Each structure stands twice: as structure tokens, then as C-alpha cells.
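Quick note —
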Amino acid sequence: MKKTLLCLLFIANTTVIFSQKKTETKEWFSIFNGKDLSGWDIKIAGQPLNDNYKNTFRVEDGVMRVMYDQYKTFDDKYGHIYYKKPFSYYIVRFEYRFTGNQTPGGAVWNNRNSGIMVHSQSAQSLTFEQTFPMSLEMQLLGGLGKGERHTGNLCSPGTQVYMQGKRRPDHCIDSDSKTYDGDQWVKAEAIVLGDSVVHHVINGDTVLTYHKTQIGGGFTGGQQDWEFSKMDKTAIEYWKKKDATALKSGYIALQAESHPIDFKNIEVLNLIGCTDPKALNYKSYFVKSDKSACHYKKKKV
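Predicted structure written out below.
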């Protein structure tokens, strides 16, 4: 009889736990409303903040588009669109596709090349001519119809990372993703955990992982290459003084670097929150605790 009761209790408890896990919903929220660019800031090299030069960034049919149909030539108008709020521990997921042909004047290496920046400096903090923000770039590359061309790579403007316990001096590090030719939609996500670890995921496969994210290493992998950033001297000296500083948080930015690209279903899952199972708003997927966020049932007086 005791064994039967114990078995029944075990089954009941297991059912409750399974039910809790099954019914717990992950609170993803969209950072792109599919209607307009509200909530985002635009910074294009050589243009004032929020000057959407030649309508580079636009929304059509629920898709955020990077377009160059009003350009005669690219003219180094590297641009980014920044979500208004910074994050630290989170997952960002989205879908992207390259379309059409590269804009005349774009560099050869920018053919079917774009990216999403994480832990980025804010749009407001870029200097007027600056080409890229200090950030970690999840580089997005489309296949060229011949040979392998991986996507979900890492490029590191003004930043550096560690892999297998060693600092990687390379400006860009290749992933082991598949190649995606043509104008097909590709699903991507970046799992970003402060300065501890970042995972790049393409169509459900983790294709690159790195650790210990920092400011430093020069702008494109060397200490004498700051001219490419086109920052003013004051900004360069500011960032140089922060060499080897942990990079724990920042903004999300989508890139415009001469090839048309579309983005849709851009969502974020915050991984900071209440980790006390007794709280009403506990979530098992939170990896960073914020006790101040916990809400409890009011005790009866």
C-alpha cells in the first residue's frame, strides 16, 4: 500500500513538473513592429543622426528592408539601424534574405554581405564619419553560387574575443555553417550572455561560439588601423584607453553595407529576471538573477 501511494505521489509530482515546463511560455517580444521604423535610430557614415539617407532603411509588406535603388553609387555610406534599448543577457532571433545585385561602388567583399551587431555602442555615440560601431558583428553572408561561403561568422570592429581559452586576434572568424545561395530566407539567432559567452545559430544549428567578450585589439585586428573607422581623434583615444575592458552589454544594430537585404520577425528574449521559483513571475529560462524583479502573492492579514 505504501509503495502504491509513493508511486502515485511520484507520478502526480512528475505530472505537475512536466505540466509546468510544458505550459511555461517564453516571453519573446518583437523589436520591429512590421509597420514602421519607430523605436530605432539610424546612423549612416557622413550623415546626421536619424538622417535616413536616400531612404536606405524602409518598411514594406511587414519587412524591414535595406535598399539602394535611390543610390547612383555606394560612396562608403556604411549604415546601421539601432534598436533604442540596450541588452546584456538575451537571445535575438530574426530571418534575413539577400536580394538583387550589389550597389555600384560597394567593395568586392561586401557582395551579399551584411550583419547584425550585438553589444554595440549607441547610435548617438558614433562620430560623424564613423563607418562601423564598436561591437560584435554576427556577419551574414549569402552564397555566390560557387563553393562554400559560410554565414553566422564573427567580425569584431574595436572588439576582441576568446576561443578555447586563447584570445583570437583575427578581425573575422569563420563559422562552420552551410552555404545559402540565392534569395532564400534564412533563420538566425545570437545567444548573448553578458561577457561570458555568445553563440551564433543558423537554421537551428550552432555554428560558432566564443567567450570573454572585450573592447580592444584595434579596430580591424591591429593597433594601427583606426583610420578605417573614420572616428575623430578624441573618440579613438577614448576607446584605446578601454583596451581589454569587459564588454557586457550594448545595443542591437542591423547593417547596411551596399548589398540589399531584408529582415523580418526580429524578436528578443530577455534572459534576466526573477529566478526564485516561489515568485509569480519566475521563469526557468532566466540565466541572470534580478531579485528586484520578483513578484509574490500578498500574504493575508
